[in-house]
């Protein structure tokens, strides 16, 4: 029976999750959020952080209950129903399988703008090839690469924030600190929620941490801690960074909202800093793609090992490297779609899958602890019913705040999953294939 080796510590897992989040993405999406929230970007991130914390707590509880690979797919399958577990795995593939493609496409788009003589397809293929090779060799190498590149990314992001503070401090007509990015002007709740739904895209790394359960030392304690730390640290970075960038550029007017941070970077730091910013953004996209592809391959491996997906292909590990090579290569092949898609199309339905998976994980906490284990004392009711219930409602509300195209594409993907499940189970008459995990063998 194939099992992954336990080599990762708390620090390594937290680094993985933060790298997946790509903290510098707060700058890459600033223009879109500034317009959608009418100048209240940090407020949107704060709302997203509160909503994601409830879901992060639920992920931690389920990771402690089921310390095996598979994330939402495993939790829902084991706590509620195998068929619904398959659906959870199917919708989360929107996140895991297509997110690397979107990440590499964004990075290639920025490089294409900086070096117009080189076709964008060259950059896409370079991202796919280098990242796939590193992930095939194994997470130890990936972790080493992430550590070096994360440092570059944080230095650039830190410089952006420091220059923003210096720029604001140089304007004697306004105080250094005020609450205008949170409460200034007219605050429209529907716009804030729409912005928070977009901002949640930046938090997707916390749930990816749970896919590394079988490769983490003392996973029942380490993974829940890592999930909360990744969510809190990432949220803190997003709120603080967006606050100072919003203060440095309170206007919602940009020449191009997709490259708004370029305008701000040039305004606060000049042409040299614009080049530094580009380097940091590309480094961020690379580290995020590295983590995203690794997570996607682990989810496919878990589903393949159970026979829900073809076991001969998805459930195999490389004898030499101990990694799911076929799944990693498939992720690279899927990413080739970036050669034909634009950023908007490739990312529009990712959040639908994430919110659906988040909702099901919150529901699985209620089923596993409150209903099945009958843990219903006053404190346990708060922990296992009220908190996941709040997380569930928040995720559904955010999902409803997505744009129409995202909902349509997400529902289309969900329909395909239901059709495949019907075929797999003979018209829903049998359960999807399952496999017992023996942690003693892990």
Automatic annotation (TrEMBL):
Keywords: Cell membrane, Membrane, Transmembrane, Transmembrane helix. InterPro entries: AA/rel_permease1 (IPR002293), APC_superfamily (IPR050367). It is found in: Cell membrane. One of its GO terms (cellular component) is plasma membrane. The keyword Membrane applies. GO terms for molecular function: transmembrane transporter activity. It is a multi-pass membrane protein. The keyword Transmembrane applies. It holds the Pfam family AA_permease_2. The chain crosses the membrane at residues 12-33, 45-75, 87-111, 117-138, 145-167, 187-206, 226-245, 272-301, 321-343, 349-370, 382-399, 405-422. This is Amino acid transporter. It comes from Pseudomonas duriflava.
């Amino acid at each position: 029976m194939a099992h992954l080796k336990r080599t990762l510590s708390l620090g390594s897992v937290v680094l993985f999750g933060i790298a997946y989040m790509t903290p510098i993405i707060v700058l890459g999406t600033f223009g879109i959020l500034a317009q959608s929230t009418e100048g209240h970007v940090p407020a949107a991130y704060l709302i997203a952080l509160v909503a994601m914390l409830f879901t992060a707590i639920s992920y931690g509880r389920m990771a402690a209950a089921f310390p095996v690979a598979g994330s939402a797919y495993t939790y829902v399958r084991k706590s509620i129903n195998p068929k619904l577990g398959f659906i959870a795995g199917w919708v989360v593939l929107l996140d895991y399988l297509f997110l690397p493609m979107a990440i590499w496409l964004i990075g290639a788009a920025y490089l294409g703008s900086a070096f117009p003589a080189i076709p964008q397809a060259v950059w896409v293929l370079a991202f796919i090839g280098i990242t796939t090779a590193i992930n095939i060799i194994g997470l130890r190498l990936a972790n080493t690469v992430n550590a070096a590149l994360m440092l570059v990314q944080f230095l650039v992001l830190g410089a952006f924030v420091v220059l923003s503070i210096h720029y604001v401090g140089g304007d004697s007509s306004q105080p250094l600190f005020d609450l205008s990015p949170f409460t200034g002007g007219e605050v429209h709740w529907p716009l804030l929620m729409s912005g928070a739904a977009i901002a949640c895209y930046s938090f997707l790394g916390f749930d990816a941490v749970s896919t590394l359960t079988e490769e983490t030392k003392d996973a029942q304690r380490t993974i829940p801690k890592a999930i909360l730390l990744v969510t809190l640290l990432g949220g803190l970075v997003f709120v603080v960074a967006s606050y100072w960038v919003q203060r440095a550029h309170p206007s919602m007017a940009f020449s191009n909202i997709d490259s708004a941070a370029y305008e701000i970077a040039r305004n606060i730091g000049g042409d040299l800093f614009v080049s530094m910013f580009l380097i940091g953004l590309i480094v961020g996209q690379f580290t995020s793609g590295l983590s995203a592809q690794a997570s996607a391959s682990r989810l496919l491996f878990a589903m393949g090992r159970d026979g829900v997906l073809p076991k001969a292909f998805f459930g195999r590990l490389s004898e030499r490297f101990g990694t799911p090579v076929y799944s990693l290569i498939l992720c690279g092949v899927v990413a080739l779609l970036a050669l034909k898609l634009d950023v908007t199309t490739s990312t529009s339905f990712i959040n639908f899958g994430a919110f659906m998976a988040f909702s099901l994980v919150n529901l699985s906490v209620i089923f596993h602890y409150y209903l099945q284990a009958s843990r219903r004392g006053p404190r346990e009711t708060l922990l296992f019913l009220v908190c996941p219930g709040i997380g569930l409602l928040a995720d559904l509300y955010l999902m409803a705040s997505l744009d129409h195209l995202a909902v349509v594409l997400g529902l289309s993907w969900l329909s395909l999953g239901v059709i495949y499940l019907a075929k797999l189970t003979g018209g829903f008459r049998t359960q999807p294939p399952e496999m017992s995990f023996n942690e003693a063998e892990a």
